[in-house]
Design goal:
The structure holds three protein chains of three kinds.
Chain A (H helix, E strand, L loop, with lengths): L18 H24 L16 H8 L1 H34 E2 L3 H13 L2 H15 L13 H23 L4 H9 L4 H30 L2 H6 L7 H11 L3 H34 L1
Helix pairs in contact in A: 2-11, 3-6, 3-8, 3-10, 4-6, 6-8, 7-8
Chain B lengths: L10 H27 L4 E7 L7 H9 L2 E7 L2 H9 L7 E2 L3 H9 L33 E14 L14 H4 L8 E4 L2 H11 L9 H14 L3 E5 L3 H6 L5 E5 H10 L3 E4 L5 E9 L7 H11 L2 H11 L6 H5 L3 H4 L8 H5 L1 E3 L5 H16 L1
Parallel strand pairs in B: 1-2, 1-3, 5-6, 5-7, 9-10
Antiparallel strand pairs in B: 4-7, 4-8, 4-9
Chain C lengths: L2 E2 L4 H30 L1 E4 L3 E4 L4 H6 L2 H33 L3 H12 L6 H12 L4 H19 L17 H24 L4 H9 L4 H12 L1 H16 L3 H6 L7 H9 L5 H32 L1
Antiparallel strand pairs in C: 2-3
Helix pairs in contact in C: 1-13, 3-7, 3-10, 7-10, 8-9, 12-13
The chains are: A mainly alpha, B alpha/beta, C mainly alpha.
Chain lengths: 283, 364, 301
């Protein structure tokens, strides 16, 4: 959907080409990234306590890369976040459609319950999960990886999918039902209507929801802390225990690596997307 | 206009798929690497962060063939809360003195089989028994430490000035806005009691309300309640005087010679971090072997070298260099030690009372 | 507009059952256990007796705790307001950006939030503290201004006093905005993207200025997005505890810090649970009130 305002002068709606908005967006990005840049710079600091700059070194990168437990924690976090995102998006989308489309007895109660995970204080949720997995629904210990991460993943999904549902629901409210009815009139089945008409409209909501779920899971500390065990440590939990005692540059190095890996992965993904799209347009 | 339509159309979902596939790829690789490393015998060691020597765990594996699965926690409360509903699988934990009592009372600890810990002969005689764990039924000492005052010499009113009283932190506006104290309700109240000349334990209610009033008056002068990172506040120049543990300050002095330490004249709290085995530990025998190894002289020396805290292990201490043994920050003089007391666990009710007092102070 | 579930039973079952079942089993059940705790008493260090007592709620409603609730509401509200003020233009800019720039911008906004919260907060400390970058920059400006004034014959400015940007409530708000900004930007973006632009163009063609167009055309159309953005920003901000813990001073205690201490140091799970549920009831009432108002407005409109 090309913008019809491709003139030399910025069109009225091309906000990014107008200086006030550029300033705001630029300022926001500076605000967001300045602490991160200092973080990355200080990962090269030759000082145990990492308060004052004392010299340049790579040794903390060595330490971080050979720290098995840190790497294992990384991997755990990424795995949990991945599964959590997939399932949360599915459940969240279904929940959003359910609330948007249907009238049914007990709807208000369901709506209220869906808001609960957003409202519950994390520590309360963490303790609830602790007790749940210890007494009510014991998760077998000693399972091989990645099944032993199941308890944490379940906990993450439970608090993430209502966020996805909220975002998708906001998106659905702008959907024109006549499109759906038109598809049905033309003979499409329920499933096809859903997949080919509704889902494309939901796309921005789904993407935003997926990003949100991924972030929530990757960064979660409190709930994971209470559901983690000796062999299921995640990155935030590991970092928390390290930071409380000694702000060594090793943690900075580990975070920098995480940031770089994430950027590279996404850049690769976008690049492949680019190629994919140009192939499609040629076909 | 397909080019550049990254986030529109079906391409959006496949982007996510690709990203996800890459993440899974990395995860599996890492996971498999993890699996191959898992040997037949392991021990799950849950310890404070940076509280072990650099090669201790590898040396243990070499000596016994048992690998150590090492995880960390950041406070006694976390440890207690995590174990409260049942042991998630830890073999060896490191609670502090008060929490040994608390966990033992709650039946969360396994009684130690001393016959499996022959290295306890290495311990200094005063550590073979403990008021908080009579007969050492549940714990073996790992390190011991005291709370005191860390300060920046150049910011004191005169070069010879030594802030050797809790007054400067708890009851005076001399260093207003440049003070940091421990944000732990029990420790803060106990030290206030010590300042007022009373023992840290058994504080009467009348004194508790005095303490509350004093701290509320002092609050505007205190910059922050810290949780064990007071030395960072001191190093970065946010505060000039701080309530902290001796080992943390000893480590900071290595980085910055302008920092100094003193134990206040009224006396202070002494702590002991102990090795315990929680109930339902999956590998109790290997856990005993690990505790025994940590009490070995060489191992103990390696740990003390790294963390710079006082060791209760005489064999380890003998192997340490002179500057560590004579470091009065790490090893307070007997005169100073005479003024130190262990804080005892006085029951949950008292802990809740202390918490409520702290909440009131913070909200005032 | 809504359809009765009876008209499409199979579809309804397929759509509704998975999320509801998951919610019940893995969320409501654990929560119910904790809810039962609010009516319990501690007997012994690890056991809780369900005695049906209201003592925990009574204690949670004492003025001491209500004050703390109030303060948390104010800080969270301020945070949400700031996020909205900053987030709306950013979301607008991204939604209307060219396709290539759009995905990069979205990524750029999201990327900091894939860094660990704790590390980000420590990095923020490095920026805000007395020997941090903001103060360094201000000091440089100050000294240069002082030099300039001496040059033109005026009295030089005094010594630079570093600003205390940390360990107070300002730091907590800044930290909370820093953490919660994407939770505001994402729903806003999702609502603004693919919005019917012809309405905006029409309004502009008719002579309304940009601000007027935004206020009268865009905001009502994006209202659901704004509402969901406010919801998922305000409520987590209300329950935040790491940020006030790390960045706050002695006066910056929020309700989640108190709750955390009940579950840990005080080992008083029933009371901690009671405080948590009180927080939830209050938030619930607020959401219900807002939904009620919205439905009334819809019926009228």
């Amino acid at each position: 959907m090309a913008s019809p305002f491709k003139r030399e002068k910025p069109g009225p709606l091309e906000y990014m080409r107008q200086w006030p908005l550029r300033l705001i967006v630029g300022g926001t990005l500076v605000f967001l990234y300045l602490p991160l840049i200092t973080l990355m710079v200080f990962s090269f600091n030759d000082s145990r306590r990492n308060i004052v700059w004392q010299g340049f070194t790579f040794k903390y990168y060595e330490k971080a890369l050979t720290n098995d437990s840190l790497i294992q924690a990384f991997v755990n976090s990424l795995t949990i976040a991945f599964f959590c995102t997939i399932i949360s998006v599915i459940l969240g989308a279904l929940a959003a459609v359910m609330l948007w489309r249907f009238r049914f007895p007990g709807k208000t109660a369901v709506e209220g319950s869906m808001a609960l995970p957003i409202v519950v204080p994390e520590i309360c949720m963490g303790v609830a999960m602790l007790v749940f997995f210890a007494r009510v629904f014991p998760w077998p210990t000693g399972l091989p990886w990645p099944l032993n991460l199941g308890a944490i993943t379940i906990a993450h999904i439970s608090f993430a999918f209502p966020f996805v549902a909220t975002v998708v629901r906001a998106r659905l409210s702008s959907f024109n039902r006549e499109l759906e009815e038109a598809a049905k009139d033309l003979g499409a089945s329920e499933w096809r209507t859903f997949w080919d008409v509704l889902v494309p409209h939901m796309k921005p909501g789904l993407i935003a929801g997926a990003l949100l779920a991924f972030t929530l899971s990757l960064d979660d500390f409190v709930i994971t802390f209470f559901t983690a065990g000796p062999d299921t440590v995640t990155f935030p939990v590991k970092v928390y225990s390290m930071l409380r005692f000694a702000v060594t540059p090793e943690v900075n190095a580990a975070s920098t690596i995480l940031i770089v890996v994430t950027v590279v992965l996404t850049a690769v993904g976008l690049h492949l997307q680019n190629q994919n799209n140009s192939k499609e347009s040629k076909a | 206009m397909a080019k550049g339509k990254y986030l529109k159309g079906a391409s959006r979902r496949s982007l996510l798929k690709q990203f996800g596939a890459a993440a899974v790829g990395i995860s599996f690789a890492g996971g498999l690497a993890g699996c191959s490393r898992a040997s037949s015998r392991t021990v799950n060691f849950h310890n404070w962060a940076t509280y072990i020597g650099p090669t201790t765990l590898d040396d243990f594996q070499e000596a016994t063939g048992i690998s150590v699965n090492y995880t960390n926690f950041a406070s006694n409360d976390e440890l207690f809360a995590a174990l409260r509903a049942g042991n998630p699988g830890y073999d060896v934990i490191v609670p502090s003195n008060e929490y040994v009592t608390r966990m033992a009372d709650a039946q969360m600890l396994m009684e130690l089989d001393h016959s499996l810990i022959p290295n306890k002969a290495n311990l200094l005689p005063e550590f073979l028994d403990a008021g908080f764990d009579p007969g050492r039924r549940y714990s073996m000492p790992y390190t011991w430490l005291v709370v005191g005052v860390g300060y920046r010499k150049s910011r004191m009113p005169s070069p010879t000035f030594v802030p050797d009283s809790w007054r400067y932190l708890l009851d005076s506006n001399q260093f207003t806005g440049r003070i940091a104290v421990l944000g732990d309700s029990a420790d803060l109240i106990r030290l206030s009691a010590k300042y007022k000349g009373h023992s840290v334990n058994g504080v009467p209610d009348a004194m508790l309300s005095e303490i509350e009033q004093m701290l509320i008056r002092q609050k505007p002068h205190i910059k922050a309640f810290h949780e064990d990172d007071g030395q960072d506040l001191l190093l970065s120049g946010e505060v000039d005087i701080v309530m902290e543990y001796n080992g943390d300050i000893a480590q900071s002095i290595r980085d910055d010679a302008d920092i100094a330490w003193v134990i206040p004249s009224e006396g202070t709290l002494q702590n002991q971090d102990c090795l315990c085995i929680p109930n339902q530990a999956p590998h109790p025998e290997d856990a005993h072997a690990f505790i025994n190894y940590l009490l070995d002289g060489q191992a103990g020396a390696g740990i003390a070298e790294e963390i710079q805290y006082a060791t209760p292990n005489s064999a380890a201490r003998d192997l340490m260099p002179e500057d560590y043994k004579s470091n009065t920050i790490v090893y307070p003089t007997p005169a100073e030690l005479a003024r130190c007391e262990y804080g005892a666990f006085e029951g949950d009710e008292k802990a809740r009372l202390y918490e409520e007092i702290f909440t009131r102070i913070s909200a005032a | 507009m809504e359809q009765s579930w009876k008209q499409a039973k199979a579809a309804f079952a397929a759509i509704a059952v998975p999320p509801v079942a998951w919610l019940v089993l893995f969320f409501l059940v654990p929560l119910a256990v904790i809810w039962a705790y609010t009516f319990g008493e501690n007997v012994g260090p690890t056991t809780i007796d369900f005695t049906g007592t209201f003592a925990n709620y009574a204690r949670a409603l004492e003025p001491l705790y209500l004050d703390i609730f109030g303060k948390s509401l104010i800080i969270a509200g301020l945070t949400t307001l700031l996020c909205l003020i900053v987030g709306f233009p950013v979301a607008l800019a991204i939604a209307f950006a060219g396709p290539k720039l759009k995905s990069w911008l979205l990524l750029a906004i999201m990327l900091p939030f894939w860094t660990n919260l704790l590390i980000r907060t420590f990095a923020l400390i490095a920026v805000l503290r007395e020997q941090g970058y903001v103060n360094f920059a201000l000091e440089w400006l100050w000294n240069n201004a002082s030099g300039f004034m001496t040059l033109i014959g005026l009295q030089p400015l005094g010594d630079y006093e570093p600003l205390t940007l940390l360990y107070n409530n300002t730091a907590v708000v800044v930290g909370l905005v820093y953490v919660h900004l994407p939770f505001m930007v994402l729903p806003l973006y999702s609502a603004l993207d693919r919005m019917d632009r012809s309405l905006m163009e029409a309004s502009l063609d008719l002579g309304a200025g940009h601000m007027r167009t935004i206020w009268s055309v865009v905001v009502p159309l994006a209202a659901p997005g704004i509402a969901s953005g406010i919801l998922i920003t305000f409520i987590p901000a209300l329950g935040a505890y790491l940020t006030p813990d790390l960045l706050g001073g002695t006066d910056s205690q929020m309700i989640a810090n108190v709750i955390e201490r009940q579950f840990k140091r005080a080992n008083d799970w029933p009371f901690g649970a009671a405080l948590s549920f009180l927080l939830m009831y209050l938030t619930f009432i607020a959401i219900a009130a807002q939904a009620f108002i919205q439905r009334k407005a819809e019926r009228r409109g």
